[in-house]
Amino acid sequence: MSTATALSPNSKSLEGTILPPISWKGPITYTVIGLIAIFGFGLTVGGGDETNFVLSASSDAIKFGTLVVPSRALSVAIGVLILAIAAFAAYGAAKRIRYGAWLPSLVGVLGIISFLVWSGAGKAESLPIPLLLSQGIIFAVPLAFGAMAGLINERVGIINIAIEGQLLAGAFTGAVVATLTGNPYLALLFAPIAGALVGVLLAFFSIKYKVDQIVVGVVLNVLVIGITGYLFSTVLKNNKGTLNTPPGLSKIEIPILSDIPIIGSVLFNQNILVYLMFAAVILLQFLLFRSRWGLRLRSVGEHPKAADTVGIKVNRTRWINVMIGGAVAGLGGVAFTVMQGIGFGKEMTSGKGYIALAAMILGRWNPNGALAAALLFGFAEALRGTLSIVGTPVPTQFLAMLPYLATIFAVAGLVGKVRAPAAEGKPYEK
Amino acid sequence: MKLELRGVTKRFGKFTANDSIDLVIEPGQVHALLGENGAGKSTLMNVIYGLYDPDGGEILLDDAPVNFAGPGDAMAAGIGMVHQHFMLVPVFTVAENVILGFEPTGKSGIINLKEARKRVREISDRFGFNIDPDALVEDLPVGAQQRVEIIKALSRDAKILILDEPTAVLTPQETDELIGIMRQLRDSGTSIVFITHKLREVKAVADKITVIRRGKVVGSADPTATETELASAMVGRSVSLGVEKSPAVPAETRLAVENLTLLSDNGVPLLEGVSFDVASGEILAIAGVQGNGQTELTETILGSHPSAVGSIKLSGKELLGQSIRGVLDSGVGFVPEDRSKDGLIADFSIEENFILDQHDREPYAKGLSLDLAAIEDAANKYIEQFDVRTQSSKALGSQLSGGNQQKVVLARELSRPLQLFIASQPTRGLDVGSIEFIHKRIVAERDHGTAVIIVSTELDEVLALADRIAVMYEGKIIGIVPGNTSRDILGLMMAGLPYDEAQAEADKHTTILAAADEDSDNPIGGAL
Amino acid sequence: MSVSSEHAPAPEAKAPEKGAAPSRWTTALRDMASSSATVIIFAILGALILAAVLIAAADPTVQKTAGYIFARPADFFKAVWDSVSGAYSALFRGAIYNPDAATFARKIKPITETLTAATPLIFAGLGLGIGFRSGIFNIGAQGQVVLGAVVSAYFGFAFNLPVVLHLIVAIIGGFLAGGLWAGIAGFLKARFGANEVIVTIMLNSIAGFLMSYLLTTTAFMRPGSNNPVSQRVADTAMFPKLLGQDFRLHWGFVLALLAAVAVWWLMERSVLGYRFRAVGFNPDAARTAGIKVERMYLYVMLVAGGLAGMGGVSQTLGTEGVLQEGVAGSIGFDAITVALLGRSRPAGIVGAAILFGALRAGSPLMQTDSNTPIDIVQVVQALVVLLIAAPPLVRAIFRLPVPLKEVAA
Q1: CA–CA separation, B228 and B230 (whole Å)
Q2: C 174-233: CB under 8 A from A
């Protein structure tokens, strides 16, 4: 038998020295933002400059006067506060304490406030906060619906690049249906059908013929742009009155809640599509993780073979949910036309489908997160519009880039790990 | 429940995986289905389970013909299956995995999680599985995941349980536990179909044995049959499983690995203070249950994990910190564990595959461009030397059989002067002929004076090739023992016991398998 | 012992759940490769037929006659025929040869316009093709075209250099700009594993906004003008015309053909191309064999982006002469369809680019002559690619025989 000499020396125990690496990304990012707030936004404005904020919409029951703040002092104060948070985060990182999403959110909000203070410093015009917020929500609607569509698809294992096309199809159909019937609410019924039809094509090619899902998505966008553009030029243009002047969705005021100062009119005096957006997010978040439908959908996107072995029809599940996703995006398309009571225009989604995709990724394939990202992007867009009127120290094009830059940082893992469903993009074969 | 197959046939294109198979599984029996890798056992079970449509024949349950459109039907009829590759969603909890497909919901479609947890606990408690319903599956060890699979099947009231190669990922001691579970299930009336290629396990647990070869039933046997009988039924001829090799003549130390440590991205140690030597002209086999750091060890030597710390010296030269290119150029030949993933480019021609790690140098490349004529010449030479069965050197890698693919990889890696040769699972999934050829080549390389490291989870391969054996457990080398160490001791070491404890323990309790070893007339034969 | 009889193929390699899982791209490409020339022709035919349905459906006369189709079906079919043949013959006259024109030069001008329109598509398609074959799904040609256009235009009007040298400098500038822009995605993929599909989509939009911004700066704008149009590129930096001043066709087209040859050599004959393909087919095996996969991703993006950037160069220095919004058109997106239709092979890409160039070049005449909007081109393009990507569908539609190897598989 073997001798003791054949045995290796006992390896030294390394316990206690092996710990996960500390992530300094958060504290470093916060420090940078804090320093920007102090030196970029605070100390660059004149000592006597002031910034004016309008806090109440004209329709508000309780009105506040214009809020006037000293620009430099406030930005510096905010910067110092952010630095304090950075220090707190650094302490947490060193101790390996994990904080939730509230820390980066807080820093983000503070950073935005200091940016706003800087933008309006020394200007006669006031920054209309309620307007900014309500516009932000309006802009967020197609993004949020698009992101929901994207995540339903990807969670079931089908990459949906065709969100753009689905939004466009929904916008087109909604406009035409609402004009023909004179009833804007019928658009909410028919636009999803148009989106679902694009979903049918996506499913047909990617599930039945196993064509690469990204290829199908990209090409479907071209196809829908082509078809809607063609029909616009041939039919809608010449019959604007009968086909392309949809009535808008009117605002529905929710009593009492809409009287809350500042946010009341923003959140509770909106059209039905905005309420539907919030409802859809809440419902989807719940159903995805608590219902039989959600469990099966996610299992198909994560491990289709496992789903198959317990009797779940993988491709049928994918077909159905790709269509559901398409319908959700189609509904979002209504935001471009009927929601605002404007007619369809060629390529009017102008890349919003791709921003919706970005919102989905930034929201880590969760409805709540996707809504937050969509609201952020919507707000950035509203800000761009406002600042181009008020006048801003930064070119608006750079503001427009923000959602895209944020997404690049996200997928590069600079703002935490993103984990896509394991089986997405792969056709299922037994 | 009684399960009967009559003339079941399944074809993939021209290839017949199952050729009119007849089989009867009696109620309350453990029925072993024995056959080589690729004999068609898994295909047959997938047919029974409704995953594949049979091209002919019929399936009868309690003498009534059944027709399954999918696994859902099979499950509803009382057939459960534990697949070789677990069918669990890693990001789901145990409870979510168990209820998937027949969720406890009201009319609302909302899942009743309390009920789900209850289902898991009931079965877990009945069999003493000790499984937490709320644990994420990806966090569970392999053995526990297998028990989740069994819970999944039992929670659906499976009367017939199919276990496909269930022991492939287990230590001998875990295998013992599984055998206990199988007996318990049988005694409570469940029929079990036990698919394996390991003779000892069959003898230990089966009530009846059916042997399958090349898609056909070639015979049935009682557990009293000798291993040699079973083995020759399995492969169709008498077998000699040992590799003929002369005793090693180890010369100077070639490879010295010291205190090698590697952490995963989230800080879990994959390798912890690994140290060992390999001499020139010696085969060191690394044994262990899959997933105990063997893969990471070979990859670290290759240079795939630059974050590793410690030291890897080849003839005195430090390898750690070098690129893969640098390591290969120092004279390391590397046969990866998963040839279709890491070893071969399926869409490249055989020619292109032969030059994969040499493509940028003479004679294959001249300056910036490839020398296609030189590449073709070399390819034809290797095809002959390594007996690669192909019609042309232009054929795609994907058109070769597994054995021939592995020969291409081997030819590539052995075609240059080596100091160290590393082969992981060199014969996994291959036919007997290829195994023999590859084992001979590996021994020849050793006799040539190269230091050789073989990583294998098959104890039989380890025992056949090794001059010394290093056993890995949870990222550590638990001990290095001579090549003729007993199976029991190795098994206990694979479960984490140091050598002396393992020896003491092995003396006290002989495992079911080692007992079968004792009876056996063939000391190293068995699993193929 | 003799083992020779034991060499039957291991069945496991054949069972469907086994075997190397091919990357998304190899699967997509294999589908394309297995689609024979017949399938391609029928796919184009099918796309034209489907588009014809749309053309006819939107035609007022057709709509009117459809109202009494059962009373007078001949009217309906004549209206359909008139609308479709009118549109397609105008397309042909605008893209290939116009027999109605007065002079010979005007008669053949359409084909030269087709080649002019094809030039940027060839460049960008070649770039995308390299990416596709190397396992990189570069959706970002659009942004790379924009960057190529921006920098080549800037070099073209801001520098004062002698003939030839000026052109070369401006070309190199455009190539590098496209390459480096794509290189961002390559770097992020190599360093952080960032999904290139997402990153390149985002970079497209960023490039667009960057160009909008630059066109508002004094460095680009014409003095005294407020329009977002750049200064004119100096004649010294313009591609010479290939067939004299009557035709817009310029030497950029020849350069594009040379680029196609160069890409063929790169992918089929060079060491670097071997690595690109190895990484594209199986990055794990390539890495195990010592190929630095991440570095290859970066190189692929640099080369691919450079070629796409050349698409922008051929616009600014070849046809447009200025930088303005819309200079890149939808070249980057069209190039995706070009690369897919051309199966990522240089010869195929040149052919596909000329086909789509013809659709582009012919569409204005189609619009004026037959009132068929340009948008139909996008419809045709999308349909062609969808059909090409699904050969079984084309075979099913046209009842074509299934190739032997698919029967065996």
Answers
A1: 5
A2: 188, 191-195, 197-199, 201-203, 205-206, 209-210, 212-213, 216
